[in-house]
């Protein structure tokens, strides 16, 4: 289990200051319960900590572990994906997300059709949207500074140097802009997790439409739209169908 890494610094401002010690106590008590094999108790304690308004990847990660050991694959997947959104570079979080995506919990027929580009995924997960945005801002600032100096100087040797810098910063802007776009879209996409077994994705929003595929518990899906109690989901790249909205929980 993970220990506390500046947990209080990662709390949202909605958490009152006097609740700090109580929150840490809940987190540690949850860890102790997990280590004793009391997974339902650990779940209860972690959920109490989340109820205070905190959003922390370590807390979601540990909660996912507790649900997984308690046999609830759906909620394990949900909390691991929530942890991934907050801390995409955490190797433990990534390992557990991949456990859900690549293990027998996800049917082989769906895995073959997902085909997510691993290279693009690694780019996306190399930082949060905030981190990508900060690097992008640095490149943009450096580009305009170099361009300004290039315009005002007359020394040809220096102009060549700054021209090279300008080209470098343009490439940096393009690359980091792409990374920021991928990550921002990922963090804000309307995604959810299938929470119950026996789910059938159909061709339309109703029980009388033909079945297209059957996503298993723990499958992450994109939620395209919802109406009349049904949601249109997509399992990239292109597996689209309608399911009862009650079987989904948003990440």
Explain what this protein looks like in three dimensions.
55% of the residues lie in helices and 13% in strands. A five-stranded antiparallel beta sheet has the order 6-5-4-1-7. It is an alpha+beta fold. The protein has nine helices and seven strands, in the order αααααααααβββββββ. It is flat and about 70 Å long. Helix 4 packs across helix 5. It has three domains: 99 residues, Alpha Horseshoe (Serine Threonine Protein Phosphatase 5, Tetratricopeptide repeat); 60 residues; 60 residues, SH3 type barrels, CATH 2.30.30.
Following the backbone from N to C, one meets helices and strands in this order, namely HHHHHHHHHEEEEEEE
CATH superfamily of the largest domain: Tetratricopeptide repeat domain
Which percent band covers the strand fraction? 5-15%
What's the arrangement of strands in the largest beta sheet?
A: 6-5-4-1-7
Instruction: Give the count of structural domains.
Output: 3
Rg value: 23 Å
Global morphology: flat
Helix content, binned percent: 40-55%
Low-confidence stretches: 3-18, 104-116
The CATH topology annotation of the largest domain reads as Serine Threonine Protein Phosphatase 5, Tetratricopeptide repeat
Give the terminus-to-terminus CA distance.
22 Å
Which CATH architecture of the largest domain is right? Alpha Horseshoe
């Amino acid at each position: 289990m993970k220990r506390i890494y500046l947990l209080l610094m990662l709390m949202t401002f909605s958490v009152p200051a006097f609740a700090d010690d109580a929150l840490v106590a809940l987190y540690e008590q949850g860890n102790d319960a997990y280590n004793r094999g009391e997974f339902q108790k650990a779940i209860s304690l972690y959920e109490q900590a989340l109820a205070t308004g905190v959003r922390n990847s370590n807390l979601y990660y540990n909660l996912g572990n507790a649900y997984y050991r308690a046999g609830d694959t759906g909620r394990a997947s949900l909390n691991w994906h929530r942890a991934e959104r907050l801390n995409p570079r955490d190797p433990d979080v990534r390992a557990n997300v991949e456990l859900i995506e690549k293990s027998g919990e996800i049917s082989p027929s769906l895995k073959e059709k997902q085909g997510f580009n691993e290279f693009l995924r690694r780019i996306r997960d190399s930082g949060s949207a905030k981190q990508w945005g900060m690097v992008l801002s640095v490149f943009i600032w450096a580009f305009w500074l170099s361009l300004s100096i290039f315009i005002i100087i007359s020394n040809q040797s220096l102009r060549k140097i700054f021209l090279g810098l300008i080209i470098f910063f343009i490439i940096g802007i393009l690359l980091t802009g792409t990374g920021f776009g991928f990550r921002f879209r990922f963090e804000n996409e309307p995604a959810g997790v299938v929470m119950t077994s026996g789910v059938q994705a159909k061709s339309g929003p109703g029980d009388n439409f033909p079945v297209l595929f059957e996503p298993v518990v723990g499958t992450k899906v994109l939620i395209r739209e919802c109406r009349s109690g049904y949601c249109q989901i997509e399992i990239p790249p292109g597996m689209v169908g309608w399911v009862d909205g009650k079987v989904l929980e948003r990440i």
